[in-house]
Amino acid sequence: MFLIAGVQPKTRRVDDQPRRCPACGRMQAYTTRVDHYLSLFFIPLVRVKQGERFLLCEYCGRPMNTGPSPEPAAPLSGTDITCVACGKSFDRSFNYCPHCGQRA
Fold first, then answer.
1. For the Zinc-ribbon domain, which residue ranges apply (predicted)?
2. Residues 52 and 17 grouped into a single domain
């Protein structure tokens, strides 16, 4: 008889409120954490360790350490720049157009 058990990580989204990614400027970063679960036959059963919260951008995939409780991003303050690729306006603080991804 075989028994396959172990501890495996599981990534969980903590908050569904999108935040601005500091790296790419898109509003696709979410508060996430990696919890470790005791698994039996690759099925997670019991959480062994709760991970620290961090910000993970779904567009660029970069994790950012934000501390225990990240602050929500400020709403776009105005239409300061017009994108040369798509023609839509966006905030001057972005490095990339949030609509099409063109570098500002």
1. 20-101
2. yes
Q: Cα–Cα distance between 10 and 33 in angstroms, integer?
A: 8
**Token pair in block for residue 26:** 């898109």
Instruction: Specify the number of domains making up the chain.
Output: 2
In a shared domain, residues 85 and 102: yes
pTM > 0.85: no
Instruction: Name the residue among 33, 83, 73, 40 with its Cα closest to residue 55.
Output: 33
CA angle at residue 71 from 59 to 19, to 5 degrees? 20
Best CA proximity match to 21, nearest among 72, 68, 90: 72
Max Cα–Cα distance, the chain, nearest Å: 67
What are the pLDDT digits (tens) for 50-92?
Answer: 988 899 998 888 888 765 444 455 554 555 778 787 777 777 7
